[in-house]
Amino acid sequence: MLAYYRLVINNKDEDSLQRTINTPARGIGKTTMEKITVAADENGVNMWEVLNDPGKYKLSLNTGLLTKINNFTTLIKSFAAEMRKKDAYESARHIAVSSGILKMYREDDAPEAISRVENIDELLNGIKEFVDRGAKESQGDLENQGTLEEFMQDVSLLTNQDNEDEEDKDKVTLMTIHSAKGLEFPYVYVVGLEENLFPSIQAINTRSDLEEERRLFYVAITRAETQVTLSFAESRYRWGQFTLTEPSRFLEEIDENLVDMPHRPSKNNMQSGDLFGDRTTALPKKNMKAVSSVATTNTSFEESDTTILQTGMKVEHPKFGKGKVTSVEGNGPNKKATVFFNGVGQKSLLLRFAKLKILS
């Protein structure tokens, strides 16, 4: 999936091009790719240029293959056009669906394919958090949520391990439960113990699948020699939607005398207020575009309960000043409003970050 994102951002990324051009299968095989590589090398250009104009570089292919290549380049160009108009999450989600990657893995019942779908889900959730953080920093302004290119820049900073010291043992080992079989560690952390995640939503339909998940949970907790820490989130993003979660049934099956439960979650404590709190974010803060303030920020500004917000209401924003609501869509934490502000114009706002004061 990341290879698609990189290729859309930079068409000259030949590694990403070779990984995506026939995934899912498009009938563009190894022999064709070798011809494209040779043509690019002989003419001193990159592979993308050859794909865009096969005739110019005397690429000897039949009409069927030329059509398939044209369809691929058109697809990537369309993704680039969408990326310029949409925020990072909308672009990433569009590429995941329209490229056929999600469909390919969802139609495959193999455990590896199911895991890949879950990985893509988590990737999109991370991008959604990145976007929402941008909205929060700009007080709900959806125009400053961040682009896919900005997200990929942040990811490249996080994944740069060129200077990693192999002698440094002060680190954690991250692995799947399957990979941990046969291994032991003094301290083990098992995360994501929530219904529909562990056990997974695919495993709760049959008794045999559920038992396999339960066996995996046993494997996980018995990897610990000294102590195991079990954790779950009270809320998380699922396919871009903020949802409240329920602790895994496996937690209830453990003898209470063996567990130290320092905090018992309440599902209601995430219904309102700052959904992010003061937690440390997974990605570094990006540089947001500066927005000129049209109203002096009032330190005593009191935001209203926007659950009652309706079209036609007059509101005030701490940065954009006074305006009128022209439309409201969505619900819960995903609720958005379009407001026309005097002297600024129309703005789309994510209400949970917008800090709007209802005037009438």
How many E-type strands? 9
SSE topology string: HHHHHHHHHHEHEEEHEEEEHE
Count of discrete alpha- or pi-helical segments spanning 4 or more residues: 13
CATH class of the domain at 169-260: Alpha Beta
CATH topology of the domain at 169-260: Rossmann fold
> Tell me about the biggest sheet?
5 strands, antiparallel
Major β-sheet strand ordering: 8-7-6-5-9
Residue share in helix: 25-40%
Q: What is the alpha-carbon Rg in Å?
A: 25 Å
Q: Could you explain how this protein is built, in words?
A:
The protein has helices at residues 2-9, 14-20, 30-43, 47-52, 63-83, 88-98, 101-106, 111-137, 148-158, 177-180, 207-221, 249-252, 351-354; strands spanning 185-190, 224-230, 235-238, 241-244, 314-317, 321-329, 336-341, 345-350, 357-358. It is an alpha+beta fold and 360 residues long. Among the domains are: 2-85, PCRA, domain 4; 169-260, P-loop containing nucleotide triphosphate hydrolases (Rossmann fold, 3-Layer(aba) Sandwich); 306-358, Beta Barrel (Thrombin, subunit H). The strands form three sheets. A five-stranded antiparallel sheet has the order 8-7-6-5-9. Strands 1-2 form a two-stranded parallel sheet. Strands 3-4 form a two-stranded antiparallel sheet. Helix 1 crosses helix 2. The two termini are 47 Å apart.
